[in-house]
Amino acid sequence: MPTAPSSPSPSVPAPVPHSTMLPPTGFLRQPQVLGLVPISKSTLWRRVHAGTFPEPVKLSDRVTVWRVEDVRQWIDVQGVPQ
Questions:
Q1: Which of 13, 24, 50, 51 has a Cα-to-Cα distance from 70 of 20 to 30 A?
Q2: How many domains are there within the chain?
Q3: Digitized pLDDT (tens) for each residue of the chain, 82 residues in all
Q4: Category of 78 on φ-ψ map: left (φ > 0), alpha (ψ -120 to 50) or beta
């Protein structure tokens, strides 16, 4: 007896949006950046401190964001397929 396809598990991440789907301007929180760039959180911060990834902007004590324009430019320079 054939089984019905199972629905995706809630723990399965949603498909990663391409950088072309980003708004022209705005801000990205860390989870959004990590959804676009296939690196770990630790590697992201190592690259920020090394100057090889764009610097984030502090909006408040607990809110850190990256400019969409900076992340898109970094992706374009890296040659990451979109």
A1: 13
A2: 1
A3: 556 555 555 554 444 445 557 788 999 999 999 999 989 999 999 999 999 999 999 999 999 999 999 999 998 898 755 5
A4: alpha
